[in-house]
Design goal:
The complex is a heterodimer of chains A (about 325) and B (about 250).
Chain A (H helix, E strand, L loop, with lengths): L2 H27 L7 H16 L23 H21 L5 H21 L1 H4 L21 H26 L2 H11 L1 H6 L4 H27 L10 H13 L4 H24 L7 H20 L9 E3 L11 E3 L3 E2 L1
Parallel strand pairs in A: 1-2
Antiparallel strand pairs in A: 2-3
Chain B lengths: L1 E10 L2 E11 L4 E5 L6 H9 L6 E6 L2 E2 L5 H6 L2 E3 L12 H8 L8 H6 L1 H21 L15 H14 L4 E5 L7 H16 L3 E5 L3 H7 L3 E5 L2 E6 L1 H5 L2 H8 L2
Parallel strand pairs in B: 3-8, 3-9, 6-7, 7-8
Antiparallel strand pairs in B: 1-2, 1-4, 4-5, 9-10
Helix pairs in contact in B: 3-6, 5-6
The chains are: A mainly alpha (about 325), B alpha/beta (about 250).
Chain lengths: ~325, ~250
């Protein structure tokens, strides 16, 4: 296994874990079916790109057109990606989450994803349209030599730090009274409202938090790939992340990580290996991948709706014995 | 305590609630009865803010709450339960109660991110308070069970306890005996009597007339979206139009 391949695998795994943890907060914990999730990842990627790139009038960059071009040093582009993801969540959330019923919210968010992709695809002066952005500088470019194996390890390390940070945030949210209220809203929004909880405010906060984390995942990805175009964030990409959260276990951070490793990373690897075998027409394997993802979602929703690692029951210290083996003791961790 | 004036609620031309005015007096259990389709549950939903009123006004403890959303009414002490079980199924019984508790510093995003050292004192206090309620209602051994796995009667009790965690001033109970095994009905009625004796005000929709007889005074009768009578059950039984509309049998 060469270094670049290992870096590619681990960084994609890290990005997918971060994305699945964010989607789990929104969908798994809070019940917000965010079918536009990939838009927030894309927004973070574009933001990080234009914050780190020079202006499009620079000699090597004049073949593309884009706004910005601020050449900010690392880590500002990554922070900027997260901030833009959060800021984008505000207007979308205020329009979609305030008045619509949950099923219509899902449809509106799906449509938002399609509209956003179509707009960026066709509005070339904004972010270079369908051709997308290229030659995005890697983090610390100019400070360290980015073409060495050591840099690949450095990038893996930076990604791992971000995974740890997002895990920390997700764990604090899920295991807190705030997370409990989000789960109650997921179970029965009207009843939660009748108990003094403001569902719109709860959804908005978790939508913004998820947007920020999604934006960060996009920033990490674009720094590694150095290119970003509308074809990389079509709405089906969100479905893959949903499949990961459903397979791993909704409402459970460990399940989200497991799902990220099993579905986006696992499928990518299997597809790559099968592709080398030259089986059937060229598009057969990617097409079969989508069939498998669809079957996976249906299969799990039908036979194991709570996923491979189900959401854990919270048992408080001093409670009577519970028969289930896996349970969560508040304040003491899993046992 | 609560005054509703000329409340209307229309659904695409259908008048589910048609000019209802009531007064709820403190420290009593007021009954709201009537045949199916009388508009009782719709009226309760309008009072709680789950449904907006098409017109009319609602004043609760001197404050006009007509345009106030449900969650703000609940924070002021106007708390409802539902006709259909509305427990948080994948939360444990204890968690169902804790969700309802106000004043937990870990309930905000910032509080959650600050960690359990910040919110654990509140949590510990509220767990003790919730366990006190569970003990009073005989469900302490069930605290770690998923609420969705309880029996119909136990779910009703969880809903009532959940509402009590909010320290309500007026409790709106929508058919609390619905779907409950007859052996549990008297038990729940006993708990409601205790709550009344503790000073809690209750407005209750109920079909079980022997329970209304036992608990409620006064009783309001609704039919076809309107109030058609009000008084004690004994007085209502003497009114032929009410007996004909609802109390037959």
């Amino acid at each position: 296994m060469n270094t670049y391949y290992a870096a590619n695998l681990l960084i994609f795994a890290g990005v997918d874990i971060i994305a699945c943890l964010a989607l789990n907060l929104q969908f798994g914990v809070s019940g917000v079916v965010n079918f536009s999730f990939i838009v927030f990842q894309a927004a973070g990627a574009y933001a990080a790109a234009v914050l780190s790139m020079p202006p499009d009038t620079a000699p090597d960059y004049s073949f593309q057109i884009y706004v910005g071009g601020y050449q900010l040093p690392f880590p500002l582009p990554w922070i900027g990606g997260a901030v833009v993801g959060a800021l984008l969540a505000l207007p979308i959330g205020l329009v979609v989450l305030r008045r619509l019923r949950a099923d219509y919210q899902a449809i509106a968010l799906l449509v938002t994803s399609i509209i956003a992709n179509t707009v960026i695809n066709n509005a070339r002066p904004l972010l270079n349209g369908a051709a997308g952005l290229a030659l995005v500088p890697q983090p610390l470019d100019g400070v360290v030599n980015t073409s060495t194996n050591s840099y690949q390890y450095l990038y893996i390390g930076l990604t791992a730090i971000c995974v740890a940070l997002v895990w920390f945030i997700a764990a604090r949210i899920v295991n807190s009274p705030y997370g409990r209220t989000l789960r109650a809203m997921r179970e029965n929004e009207v009843a939660a409202s009748a108990l003094g909880k403001n569902p719109t405010a709860l959804k908005m906060t978790i939508f913004v938090v998820g947007g920020a984390i999604a934006g960060l995942s996009g920033a990490i990805l674009v720094g590694f790939l150095q290119v970003w175009a509308p074809s990389t964030w079509l709405y089906p990409e969100t479905i893959i992340l949903f499949a990961a959260v459903i397979v791993g276990g909704r409402g459970n951070n460990v399940g989200a990580i497991l799902g990220a490793l099993l579905v986006p990373v696992g499928f990518e690897e299997v597809t790559r290996l099968l592709g080398r075998m030259n089986i059937g027409p060229p598009n057969l394997i990617p097409a079969l991948e989508w069939v498998c993802i669809g079957l996976l979602i249906l299969g799990f929703l039908w036979f194991r709706p709570r996923g491979v690692v189900p959401e854990q029951r919270r048992v408080f210290p001093g409670a009577p014995a519970v028969e289930e083996e896996t349970r969560w003791v508040v304040g003491k961790g899993a046992r | 305590m609560l005054s509703a004036r000329d409340i209307h609620r229309h659904f695409e031309g259908m008048h589910a609630v048609d000019g209802v005015s009531i007064e709820v007096m403190p420290g009593r259990i007021t009954g709201l009865i009537g045949p199916n389709g009388a508009g009782k549950s719709t009226f309760m939903a309008v009072l709680a803010g789950t449904l907006p009123a098409s017109s009319g006004s609602i004043v609760f403890q001197g404050e006009d709450i007509t345009r106030m959303p449900a969650y703000q009414r609940a924070r002021r002490g106007l708390v409802r339960t539902f006709q259909l079980p509305s427990e948080f199924g994948q939360l444990t019984v204890l968690e169902n109660l804790l969700v309802a508790a106000p004043d937990n510093r870990g309930e905000s995003l910032l509080g959650a991110l600050l960690g359990k050292r910040y919110w654990m004192p509140d949590e510990t206090r509220l767990v003790a308070q919730a366990r006190g309620l569970l003990e009073r209602f005989g469900l302490l051994p069930k605290e770690s069970d998923y609420a969705g796995m309880l029996s119909g009667g136990q779910k009703r009790l969880v809903e009532i306890m959940r509402a009590l965690m909010l320290r309500p001033r007026l409790l709106l109970l929508d058919e609390p005996m619905s779907g409950v095994h007859p052996s549990i009905v008297n038990e729940i009625a006993g708990y409601l009597e205790q709550l009344r004796d503790d000073g809690l005000t209750i407005l209750m929709v109920e079909h079980e007339l022997h329970i209304v007889d036992r608990l409620c005074d006064p009783v309001i009768v609704m039919a076809q979206g309107k109030v058609i009578g009000e008084g004690s059950m004994a007085a209502l039984r003497r009114q032929p139009e009410i007996v004909e509309a609802y109390l037959v049998g």
